[in-house]
Structures are given as structure tokens and as C-alpha cells.
Design the sequence.
């Protein structure tokens, strides 16, 4: 306690100098907090928007061959059906979940209050988890709905507004192309900025088995089992493979100009024998892998975060140099004091610890004030409306831990040399010293 009182007394004796020295440390810590919060906000905001389309999903659609295979010409249509879903579930080594999707557009939907032309998707229950279809009223499609081929529908927010205005649609009956369907749930409003068939807010979702019976694909080349798309999710450990592949392929891999990723190659390897196309043919199936986008964005945000933190640490280090400079000046100004203290019995260790504690106290108190200001500024910014893909200024425990570690290291480094120099002053020379 005596040491702390002496430290405070010495710092308070030079208020302006102490404040100016503290400002560099404060600004460095504020920079770490603000820049880290910006990076975290962008990462979380973008992740939220990406997951509105789906949680790292791959969208598989019909394609057209670009290579000859088994004597068959290039340019053949490859049409997906329900057997492909079962095949992927059984034989794919990289996929964790798979769902069919039967899409029909311009379905005539009529409620007791209004009518509209809407798009409809027939899906399995797992599709709702993959595509983040979540309800704010009612429930989702269940396995029992599919097994019993029930005529039930989950309705998008905007579709509900068109058909029911502000009324609760759950429990009501809607006519879909003249067939009665019971509304079992309403999808929460989704902030979706990308899609492959239309916004989920404006869609209807029914069990695949009901869609197969009531809304089959139109005639021609399609059969009763034909599908519009297959939605799948890779296993969690596959993300590492995709990250390694992206590092190897670079931007060309991300744009899909030169190669296909491991999940795409796995899907083609499973389906190629059944449809008679070359598994190396990148055009045989149209695939959109959102997991690649997520990995690419995470790497970009990681690089940005590293840059931000590096700039902040440099700023903090410059503040540490300022602390060291001020402590060296303090040692020079108090040379006679050091001589007197040594003459009356103070050891070199006492002197060293005194100046070390002053420098460390100056650094840590500056950092604490800077961290509080940084968190306060983040909270102030978060009161304003946030743009899309930005979740606000997000401070994390990792940011706090990093700031504490860096600040402690700089405080120790900035205080050790001046303290050691003060401790090594000979008492006689210190007593003779005059400013």
C-alpha cells in the first residue's frame, strides 16, 4: 500500500505530463477495441446473412454435359430425381444431410380473404434446418406430414401478408391450384439478400410427398420422380478440406474457373455412373456451394482483423515508448531523491520496484481507461440503426484478453529499463547530481 501511495503521489505531481503520456496508451487500447469490434461485427453480420440462405449448403441442379462419356455425345441433359437423393444419402462420403426440392412457380393460392400467385417448394423436414426455415407462428413440416402425405403448408411472411393481411394464418385453409391445404406455420421474416428460386418470405413450403402427388413437374422429359434441386450439407470436418483446397486453388478456385471443390467432386462421383456422364465434367451438374463463400469470407475477415490488430499494437507500442521516455526523464529529475533514499538504507531492489511500479501503473491505468472508453463508444454506435451485413460493434472476451496481454507486455517492457537504470545509480554520484 505504501508503494501504491508513493506511485500515485509521484504521478499526481506531474499531472499534465502523466496525462499526455497516458493518452498514447489510451488511444492504442481504444484502437484495439474499436477495430476488433468492427471486424467482429462484419463477420457476424455477414454470417447471419449467409445463413439466411442456408447453413453451409450445396445446391445441386440439373445440368448439361460438356464432355463425351461412354460413347454418348456432349450436350445431353442431366435431370435429377428422387433416386439421386437416396443415392447421395447412401454413398456420399462428404455429405451429412440431403433433401429433395420440387419447385413449382405461379401456383394459384387463395385464402378466405385474398388470392395471389406464389411459388411453392415440396421438401423433406431436414430441408428446413439446412435452409434456416424457422417459424414465428405454428410449427414446421414433420416426418409424419411426409409419411402420411398430409396437405399442410408453411407460409412465408410476405405470402402470409398477401393472403391474410395482419391476421394469424395458422389453422386456416388455403386453396393451392384448387386443392385444400392447412396452414401449420408462418416463416419468420428473413433478411435474405441471395436466393436461387426466389425469396423465402414470398414462398410456400409443403411436404415433398404431397408436392409429388399434387404438383408434379410438367410433362416432356420429366417424370413423376423428377426434382428441381437437391439441397445438401457437407459434414463439419469437410470445411477443413475446402479451406485447404481454396488455399491451393486461390481466387480461381473460388470463382470456379479452373477446378471444383471436394464436395462437388464427391457428388459427381456418386451420380455419374447412374446418369452416364464423366465425373470430371464440371457442367454435368450445376452446383452452388455456399460453404466455399463462408470459408472465403472468414479468411478475408481474418486477414482484415489481423491487419487491424497489428495497427493497434503498433500504436500501443508507440505509447509504450512514450511511457519509457517519461520514466527516463523521471529518473533523471529524481536522481538526488534516489541518492538520499539509498543513503538512508533503501536497496537497489526498493528503488527498482518503485520506478517499475510507477511505469506499470501508468500503463495499466491508461489501458483500463482506454478499454472503458472503447466499450462505451461501441455501445454508443450500437444505438444507431445498423446496415445490412453488419451486426454492430461487437466486443468479445478475446478482444479483452488480447488487450490485457499486449498492454501488460508493453507495460513491463516500458518500465523495466528505466527502473533498472534508477536502481544502478551509485548513491554518492546521485547525491552530488544537480539539475
Sequence:
Amino acid at each position: 500500500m505504501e508503494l501504491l501511495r508513493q506511485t500515485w503521489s509521484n504521478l499526481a505531481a506531474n499531472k499534465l505530463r502523466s496525462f499526455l503520456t497516458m493518452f498514447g496508451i489510451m488511444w492504442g487500447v481504444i484502437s484495439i477495441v474499436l477495430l476488433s469490434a468492427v471486424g467482429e461485427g462484419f463477420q457476424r453480420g455477414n454470417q447471419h446473412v449467409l445463413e439466411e440462405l442456408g447453413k453451409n449448403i450445396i445446391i445441386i441442379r440439373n445440368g448439361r454435359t460438356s464432355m463425351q462419356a461412354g460413347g454418348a455425345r456432349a450436350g445431353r441433359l442431366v435431370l435429377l430425381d428422387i433416386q439421386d437423393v437416396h443415392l447421395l444419402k447412401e454413398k456420399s462420403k462428404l455429405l451429412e444431410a440431403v433433401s429433395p426440392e420440387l419447385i413449382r412457380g405461379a401456383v394459384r393460392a387463395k385464402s378466405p380473404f385474398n388470392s395471389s400467385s406464389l411459388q411453392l417448394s415440396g421438401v423433406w423436414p431436414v430441408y428446413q434446418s439446412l435452409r434456416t426455415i424457422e417459424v414465428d407462428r405454428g410449427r414446421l413440416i414433420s416426418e409424419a406430414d411426409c409419411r402420411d402425405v398430409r396437405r399442410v403448408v408453411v407460409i412465408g411472411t410476405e405470402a402470409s401478408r398477401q393472403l391474410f393481411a395482419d391476421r394469424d394464418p395458422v389453422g386456416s385453409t388455403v386453396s393451392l391450384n384448387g386443392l385444400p391445404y392447412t396452414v401449420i406455420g408462418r416463416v419468420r421474416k428473413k433478411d435474405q439478400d441471395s436466393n436461387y428460386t426466389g425469396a423465402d418470405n414470398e414462398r410456400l413450403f409443403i411436404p415433398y410427398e404431397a408436392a409429388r402427388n399434387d404438383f408434379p413437374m410438367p410433362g416432356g422429359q420429366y417424370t413423376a420422380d423428377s426434382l428441381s434441386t437437391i439441397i445438401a450439407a457437407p459434414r463439419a470436418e469437410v470445411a477443413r478440406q475446402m479451406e485447404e483446397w481454396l488455399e491451393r486453388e486461390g481466387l480461381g478456385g473460388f470463382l470456379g474457373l479452373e477446378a471444383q471443390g471436394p464436395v462437388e467432386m464427391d457428388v459427381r462421383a456418386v451420380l455419374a455412373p447412374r446418369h452416364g456422364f464423366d465425373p470430371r465434367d464440371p457442367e454435368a451438374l450445376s452446383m452452388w456451394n455456399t460453404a466455399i463463400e463462408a470459408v472465403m469470407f472468414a479468411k478475408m475477415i481474418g486477414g482484415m482483423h489481423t491487419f487491424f490488430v497489428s495497427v493497434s499494437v503498433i500504436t500501443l507500442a508507440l505509447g509504450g515508448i512514450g511511457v519509457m521516455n517519461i520514466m527516463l526523464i523521471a529518473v533523471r529529475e529524481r536522481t538526488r531523491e534516489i541518492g538520499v533514499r539509498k543513503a538512508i538504507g533503501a536497496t537497489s531492489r526498493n528503488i527498482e520496484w518503485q520506478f517499475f511500479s510507477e511505469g506499470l501503473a501508468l500503463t495499466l491505468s491508461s489501458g483500463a481507461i482506454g478499454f472503458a472508453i472503447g466499450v462505451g463508444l461501441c455501445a454508443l454506435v450500437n444505438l444507431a440503426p445498423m446496415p445490412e451485413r453488419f451486426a454492430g460493434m461487437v466486443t468479445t472476451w478475446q478482444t479483452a484478453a488480447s488487450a490485457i496481454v499486449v498492454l501488460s507486455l508493453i507495460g513491463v517492457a516500458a518500465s523495466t529499463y528505466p527502473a533498472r537504470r534508477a536502481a544502478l545509480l551509485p548513491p554518492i554520484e546521485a547525491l552530488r547530481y544537480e539539475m
User: Anything to note?
Assistant: The longest helix spans residues 290-333. The chain has two domains: 2-50+296-432, 106-225.
